[in-house]
Amino acid sequence: MRVALPRELVRTIGVCLPLVLATAVRGNSPAGLAAVDTELIKSVLEKYRTAWLANDADGVRATFTKDAVLMPHHGLNPIVGMTAINEFWWPATTARTTILKFVRTIDEVGGNASLAYVRGRSEVAWKMEDGGKTESWRTAGTYMAVLKRQANGKWLVSHLIWDDVPNQRIE
Fold it and tell me: 156-166 as b/e, with b when 16 or more CB fall inside 10 Å?
């Protein structure tokens, strides 16, 4: 029996696998990332983190390519493109979500002059308010971000993959 993989998954594997294999084989070769690029990439991820902490949706969106792909935890379907990302993270609802804590490590950065990846761990806590009721939640896990250098030299996240434990309610 033949199993068909979702097109977005095949596309993401096609983007990530050659990058990871090339980095594993070459290590930190001269064709790898320049130190300035590594710092720029770390800066993009820090802008992403601080935008969430400021509850700045535009700031979060500004760290992604227009055709970015989110590959959420627990086997959820990939979220493809900025319209779908907006619907996933900022749905039209009366509930208000506020990020209370977002801690992230960067354990590895690799790639080349046009495509890079970052691997690490993160911990997030947030509260949801709806109709006078407030609930607080947290989770922690691992992530991998793939970034592409844009024509203007700026690095942006093209793919974000994460896995974490199920959300835990904070009493």
Answer: bbbbbbbebee
Average pLDDT, the chain: 87
Residues 85/61, Cβ–Cβ less than 8 Å? yes
- The more confidently predicted of residues 18 and 136 is 136
| Alpha carbon distance 137, 157 (integer Å) | 26
CA-to-CA distance for 103 and 53, rounded, in angstroms?
Answer: 10
Q: Is the pLDDT of residue 12 over 80?
A: no
Secondary structure of the chain: what % helix, strand, coil (to 5)? Answer: 30, 40, 30
7 pLDDT band, cuts 50/70/90, is low
Residues 110-118, mean pLDDT to the nearest whole number: 97
Domains of the chain (ranges; CATH) run 7-170 (3.10.450.50)
Are 116 and 23 in contact, with CB atoms under 8 Å apart? no
- In the block, tokens 């996240």 appear at 157
